[in-house]
């Protein structure tokens, strides 16, 4: 049986660093294969070599019997290789339908031929409909793409990629940043897609539920090489894979003791209203966080968690009538630099690393900004939490992998020596092993008097670290879950986080 | 030939100083300062006044740009900072208003006549290059331009303040969240940009005619340079200035009719091949 995709001796170096150090891989037609591996293992680089975004130094990529090693991305799409990107890529102002029509018309060669467009429209229209049905978005056809939820946007992207009628689909972290409910929906659609057709899917993921729930075969990369390749059970039992990637038995440590909530409140939020322009996102949100507590903000995608964290960090001015007190001092409406000086530090979900600065310089900016001479969070301590950073200090931000950037963003926030740490999706994009270390580290950070408020889609992670969870729905705070609720099967929590 | 090149390069230095400030301000603050040419003009006038008062070219060269820096401070602190969050059109309107106000103020105070200022004695000699004579002053200008370029590079790449400026230019919101006092930083960057323009103006005083319209002439060229070199890129501004200077010098020699159009043609050509400019960052 001949393979759809065959990769031989693929290598790629950047300057002095070898990201892909000789990969051989053959994919037979059909089915889903997952690529996993530690942060910085070379997964995204590998996908980029397959899609043509990068050209390898050595080796060959053979697709359906033809050598495509040196073909540009657009040519690869034409021969049947399609991909979605790690960052969502849709036209937000166009409708869902129009978004899909763009690649459909382009493929039919009609995009630049205004005169023929009308004649061919029926055909194209039917195809657009078909594609939307394939991913379960037919009902949203006329909505603006910008109004879609995170998961729906991903599905739309997949529909757009399918417009080229590919035989191979490459997906880089398709469910990153998605809540359980959204994720399961995307998962179901991808599974159905694979079952219905002879499409071959290769995906990169850090979410083990997705990987083990979807893939029939798992390929593990480490330092640019394949170190394991086999059926899910085989991979799960592989000692080496556990050691470098999965971590020990549980993906997260068992819950420890909850912090006593007796301390004076550090953060008091009352009647917080916020939004963007005319869009009213947060409605009358009130809560308090005690000093040294770790509180998780939970809720489905789009309920306002990021807006809440941004309001607390000063990046979004809270609307009038909102009150925020930090250690008894009213701070609503203060600019972000002022809040930073008062000890509030924020890690955005999209990392926001300074791309042209080295990793070390990214930390130095945090020191200089507050005119700090020293910090409790020295590099040595940071390297204990995030061992991979130890060798990366001189690398430019833009050259770090997704997970490496996430680690650096958290490290940068710690460098400011915060008393209140706001973390938006801290575990997203990190390998299970690093997520574990981070969970341990948060417990440790808390013991030094740092208070943590975090929003995370990874319920396992929240369970492992949080003393309490605040659950939001449509911009309102609707439920508070205790540590016991979090550990057990709190029905209210189940309901609020499921579809 | 070589001589023409040197003349072109030294002429390019005024342009470089103005373009450097313009580009720095745009790169960090995302404000296109139309009034940058007027600051250049003010540099020439202030230096001229300082010369009349003190009798020393060196005092004039020191004082002129410093006064312009003070004007820059007043502009930023008193006006510009109020419109950072407003749409770009408002910022453009405001800086354009400054063009009109400053030009008229200069006309009122000094009259519309072309002043002809003196050349400094120490630099009034000339050097023989091949068969042509190059005024020492041109070499001096070349030296100052190169020195400023080097200084800016060291400042931005090697100092802590430079590091914070680069971070803020790249992502203002994140820098502020880390504690960078962006509004203060903007004031300093604007002052530095104004000083650079003022220095250009002061340097031009002895060899170029001073007139109220001189700012408008140079700002257009500076825009060409900044767009051609890549918005916000100092290296682009430097290379762009040299390119435009050389084009003018050789254009004057070989096709005098087209001389003025050459800069625009170069810009158009670059933008067709690299829409983000020579050293600009490609978006997306
Ligand atoms: N242009 C570059 N220059 C230097 N190093 C690079 C460059 N691009 C990537 N790297 C390095 O190559 C390694 C592999 O990066 P890659 O993005 O492929 O990792 P990844 O497996 O996708 O990781 P993650 O799980 O964090 O997304 C990383 O250590 C990264 O820092
Ligand atoms: Mg990656």
Topology, please?
The complex is a heterodimer of chains A (499) and B (284).
Chain A: E1 3-14, E2 17-28, E3 31-36, H1 43-51, E4 58-63, E5 66-67, H2 73-79, E6 81-84, H3 96-107, H4 114-134, H5 150-162, E7 168-172, H6 180-196, E8 200-204, H7 208-214, E9 217-222, E10 225-230, H8 232-237, H9 239-246, E11 265-276, E12 279-290, E13 294-298, H10 305-313, E14 323-326, E15 329-330, H11 336-341, E16 344-347, H12 359-369, H13 379-385, H14 402-415, E17 420-424, H15 432-447, E18 451-455, H16 459-465, E19 468-473, E20 476-482, H17 483-487, H18 491-497
Parallel strand pairs in A: 3-8, 3-9, 6-7, 7-8, 13-18, 13-19, 16-17, 17-18
Antiparallel strand pairs in A: 1-2, 1-4, 4-5, 9-10, 11-12, 11-14, 14-15, 19-20
Helix pairs in contact in A: 3-4, 3-5, 5-6, 12-14
Chain B: H1 2-29, H2 36-54, H3 57-78, H4 88-110, E1 126-129, E2 132-135, H5 136-158, H6 160-170, H7 172-177, H8 182-204, H9 214-229, H10 234-254, H11 259-273
Antiparallel strand pairs in B: 1-2
Helix pairs in contact in B: 1-5, 1-8, 1-9, 1-10, 2-3, 2-4, 2-8, 2-9, 3-8, 5-6, 9-10, 9-11, 10-11
Bound molecules: adenosine-5'-triphosphate and magnesium ion.
Which features would summarize this protein structure in a list?
heterodimer, A: 499 residues, alpha/beta, Rossmann fold, 2 domains, six-stranded mixed β-sheet, globular, B: 284 residues, mainly alpha, two-stranded antiparallel sheet, 3% strand
């Amino acid at each position: 049986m001949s393979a759809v995709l065959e990769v031989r001796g693929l290598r790629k170096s950047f300057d002095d660093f070898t990201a892909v150090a000789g990969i051989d891989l053959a994919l037979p037609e059909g089915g889903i294969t997952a690529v996993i591996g530690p942060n910085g293992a070379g997964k995204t680089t590998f996908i980029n070599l397959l899609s043509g975004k990068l050209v390898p130094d050595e080796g060959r990529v053979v697709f359906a019997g033809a050598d495509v090693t040196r073909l540009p991305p657009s040519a690869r799409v034409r021969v049947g290789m399609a991909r979605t990107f790690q960052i969502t890529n849709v036209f937000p102002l166009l409708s869902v339908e129009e978004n899909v029509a763009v690649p459909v018309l382009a493929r039919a060669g009609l995009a630049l031929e205004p005169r023929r467009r009308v004649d061919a429209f029926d055909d194209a229209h039917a195809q657009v409909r078909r594609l939307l049905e394939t991913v379960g978005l037919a009902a949203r056809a006329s909505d603006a793409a910008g109004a879609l939820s995170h998961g729906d946007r991903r599905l739309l992207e997949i529909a757009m990629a399918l417009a080229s009628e590919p035989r191979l689909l490459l997906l880089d972290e398709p469910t990153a940043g998605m809540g359980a409910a959204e994720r399961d929906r995307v998962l179901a659609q991808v599974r159905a897609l694979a079952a219905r057709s002879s499409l071959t899917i290769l995906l990169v993921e850090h979410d083990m539920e997705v990987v083990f729930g979807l893939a029939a075969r798992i390929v593990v990369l480490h330092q640019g090489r394949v170190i394991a390749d086999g059926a899910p059970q085989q991979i799960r039992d592989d000692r080496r894979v556990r050691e470098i990637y999965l971590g020990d038995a549980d993906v997260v440590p068992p819950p420890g003791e909850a912090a006593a909530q007796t301390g004076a409140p550090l953060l008091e939020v009352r009647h917080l209203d916020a939004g963007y322009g005319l869009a009213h996102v947060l409605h009358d949100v009130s809560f308090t966080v005690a000093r040294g507590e770790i509180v998780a903000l939970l809720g489905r995608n789009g309920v306002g968690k990021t807006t809440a964290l941004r309001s607390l960090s000063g990046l979004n001015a809270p609307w009038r009538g909102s009150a925020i007190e930090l250690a008894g001092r009213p701070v609503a409406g203060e600019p972000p630099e002022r809040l930073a000086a008062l000890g509030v530090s924020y890690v955005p979900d999209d990392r926001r690393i300074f791309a042209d600065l080295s990793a070390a310089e990214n930390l130095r900016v945090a020191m200089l900004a507050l005119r700090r001479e020293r910090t409790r969070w020295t590099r040595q301590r940071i390297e204990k939490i995030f061992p991979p950073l130890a060798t990366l200090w001189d690398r430019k931000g833009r050259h770090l992998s997704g997970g490496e950037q996430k680690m650096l963003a958290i490290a940068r926030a710690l460098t400011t020596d915060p008393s209140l740490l706001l973390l938006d999706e801290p575990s997203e994009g990190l390998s299970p092993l690093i997520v574990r270390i981070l969970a341990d580290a948060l417990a440790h950070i808390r013991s030094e008097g740092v208070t943590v408020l975090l929003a995370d889609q990874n319920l396992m992670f929240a369970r492992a670290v949080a003393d309490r969870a605040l659950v939001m729905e449509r911009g309102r705070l609707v439920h508070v879950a205790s540590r016991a609720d979090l550990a057990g099967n709190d029905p209210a929590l189940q309901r609020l986080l499921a579809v | 030939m070589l001589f023409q090149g040197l003349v072109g390069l030294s002429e390019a230095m005024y342009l470089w100083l103005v373009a450097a400030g313009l580009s720095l301000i745009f790169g960090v603050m995302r404000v296109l300062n139309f009034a940058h040419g007027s600051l250049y003009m003010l540099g020439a006038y202030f230096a001229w006044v300082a010369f009349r008062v003190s009798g020393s070219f060196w005092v004039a060269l020191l004082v002129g740009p410093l006064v312009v820096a003070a004007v820059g401070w007043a502009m930023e602190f008193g006006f510009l900072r109020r419109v950072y969050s407003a749409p770009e059109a408002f910022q453009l309107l405001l800086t354009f208003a400054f063009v009109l106000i400053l030009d008229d103020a200069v006309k009122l105070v000094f009259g519309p006549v072309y002043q002809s200022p003196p050349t400094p004695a120490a630099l009034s000699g000339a050097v023989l290059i091949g068969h042509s004579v190059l005024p020492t002053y041109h070499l001096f200008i070349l030296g100052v331009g190169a020195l400023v370029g080097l200084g800016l590079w060291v400042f931005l790449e090697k100092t802590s303040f430079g590091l914070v400026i680069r971070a803020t230019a790249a992502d203002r919101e994140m820098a502020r969240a880390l504690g960078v006092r962006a509004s203060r930083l903007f004031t300093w960057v604007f002052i530095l940009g104004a000083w650079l323009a003022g220095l250009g103006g002061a340097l031009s005083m002895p060899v170029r005619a001073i007139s109220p319209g001189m700012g408008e002439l140079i700002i257009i060229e500076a825009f060409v340079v900044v767009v051609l070199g890549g918005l916000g890129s100092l290296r682009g501004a430097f290379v762009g200035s040299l390119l435009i200077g050389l084009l003018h010098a050789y254009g004057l020699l070989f096709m005098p009719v087209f001389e003025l159009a050459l800069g625009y043609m170069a810009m158009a050509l670059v933008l067709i091949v690299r829409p983000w400019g020579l050293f600009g960052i490609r978006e997306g």
